Amino acid sequence: MRWVLAASIITSVAAGVSARAGGQALRNPNGRNTNVPPRARAHPGVPFDKWTRDGPVANKFDNADTQKYRVNGTAIPDVDFDIGEAYAGQMSISQDLNGPDKFYFWFQPSPNPDADKEIVIWLNGGPGCSSLEGFIQENGPFLWQYGTYRPVANPWGWHHLTNVLWVEQPINTGFSTGTVTAQDEEDVARQFMGFFKNFIDTFSMKGYKVYITGESYAGMYCPYIANAMINANDTEHFNMKGMLIYDPSITDDRVTELTLVPFVDYHHNLFPFNDSFTKQIHDIDNKCGYADARSKHLSYPPPGHLPNPLPGIDPNTGTPRPECDDGLLANTIQQAITDLNPCFDIYQVATTCPLLWDVLGFPGSFDYLPKGASIYFDRQDVKKAINAPLDRKWASCGGPVFVDHDKSPPSSTTVLGNVIDKTKNVVIGHGALDFILLANGTLMAIQNMTFGGQLGFQKPPVEPFYVPYHTTGELGTIAGAGVSGTTHTERGLTYVGVSLSGHMVPQYAPSAAFRHLEFLLGRVDSLSSKKPFTTDPKFPQPDGPLGNGTAPPGYN
């Protein structure tokens, strides 16, 4: 879920905020068609895919080798329903199956008949943040969201479409244990492939089509792992077919900083700054050359690569000018908005007080657990039920996971273009309300990346992203429908901006993410398609044109 931004962005903010927030410092992260049919109502808590409703499904992956990983889907603490066939536990990342270095995983097979011989991998970011975050609050079989009373069945769980594998990695993330040896993303990819080969062999899944997905710092993890799988030339274990990454860290922090001021201007009702402060940040934007760089390079097609060094860097010293120091602009804005909105959430800027409790201890920008509450995955009864090591303290984000720090360059400047070219099936999604990684920063990175023999998109993203209208279940899992953003596809890369989503798209816009996965898997041919969800095929959709997309691209 999380991504650690440059330390300088938060350092001074945390000092100011911690006092206001009772000592809790911020985590340091490096139109709708009205002529539509009424929604039908399903039975509360019942997923809308018929193969789940019709009753139990055979345990497809139950064998002598997988028995020790079986999870009793009726005995997960606080979950009062059967989640179906599931497997979890630690597995070695080396040929020595009893070796000390192990990743923790959760595997949820799909009852969907279209899921034959395919698997989706999900990775959260950080670095050092647990993929169990994604499992329990984004796309797993049950959800326990911020401030909610208990877990509920997730009708938008990705297992309704295909077999899904959540992995805590690298070593020292969540329940994954061993010696931290990773120096860079090449090491991360080697560790993951060692684990994944063992997983494929254990669960008898040779030749399965592999799709890798994730969010945030998984913008580093996923492209490097996908590239390594492609280069392995081993389709029995690493049959890489596509990638989906949300709000990804794919570029230098300074590229993201180029787009901060127009983000604040566009969302002025959420950043209600006075005139003098607004002038202050615009002065920084202009003096550091950020505004000029945007006007030239956030264009379609781009005129060329971004300058080297980037704006704000002294070419003689290679270091930032004092007024353009790394993270200074973001730090200045965040300090000011936190004064106005003490519960400001860098992951979803429309969030206001009160601060909600979270069973993972990390609601929004804060480490926070009210008195008497416990962190779900750190409970002994939960650990026992999900085959986790009982002596391992679990935290939503931890580490370190690198010996020093990640020495790899951003994925958009190295391996991402090759993954696009080789798979012709890469989706980059971005929530419009994310502040920690900005949508226009991602678009700037795309416009500075060569793929399919050309630099960036040749045309701007303007097409509508459509989420089908659908059957609704209980109120705790309702999700939006209709034109929900903007999309564009060129040369094997699809960009999709999601209008009302923050950083964690499957959490804030679960129906949108469900559609993205259908597209990645080839179940629908376009993110502008008005075809119903494949899991709800008879639900009627509106007639008439959709118009343009609604997540504004390239504002500058």
Describe the overall structure.
Helices cover 26% and strands 13% of the residues. It has 556 residues and is α/β, with parallel strands linked by helices. The protein has two domains: 50-252 and 408-520, Alpha/Beta hydrolase fold, catalytic domain (Rossmann fold), CATH 3.40.50.1820; 257-379, no CATH class. The strands form three sheets. A ten-stranded mixed β-sheet has the order 1-2-6-3-7-8-9-14-13-12, sandwiched between helices. Strands 4-5 form a two-stranded antiparallel ribbon. Strand 10 and strand 11 form a beta hairpin. The radius of gyration is 22 Å and the shape is globular. Mean pLDDT is 90; it is low at 1-48 and 51-55. This is Carboxypeptidase. Residues 23-44, 531-556 are annotated as: Disordered.
What structural class should be given to the helix and strand makeup?
alpha/beta
Overall strand count: 14
If you consult CATH, what is the topology of the largest domain? Answer: Rossmann fold
Q: Quick one: biggest sheet?
A: 10 strands, mixed
Rg, alpha carbons: 22 Å
What is the name of the CATH class of the largest domain?
A: Alpha Beta
State the domain count.
2
Q: How much beta, percentage-wise?
A: 5-15%
Strand order of the largest sheet: 1-2-6-3-7-8-9-14-13-12
Average pLDDT reading? 90
Helix content range:
25-40%
End-to-end distance: 28 Å
CATH architecture of the largest domain, by name, is: 3-Layer(aba) Sandwich
User: Helical element count?
Assistant: 15
Low-confidence stretches: 1-48, 51-55
Task: Give the SSE order as H and E letters.
Answer: HHEEEHEEEHEHEHHHHHHHEHEEEEEHH
Shape: globular
Q: CATH-wise, what's the superfamily of the largest domain?
A: Alpha/Beta hydrolase fold, catalytic domain
Organism: Metarhizium guizhouense (strain ARSEF 977)
GO molecular function: serine-type carboxypeptidase activity
Keywords: Carboxypeptidase, Glycoprotein, Hydrolase, Protease, Signal
GO biological process, one term: proteolysis
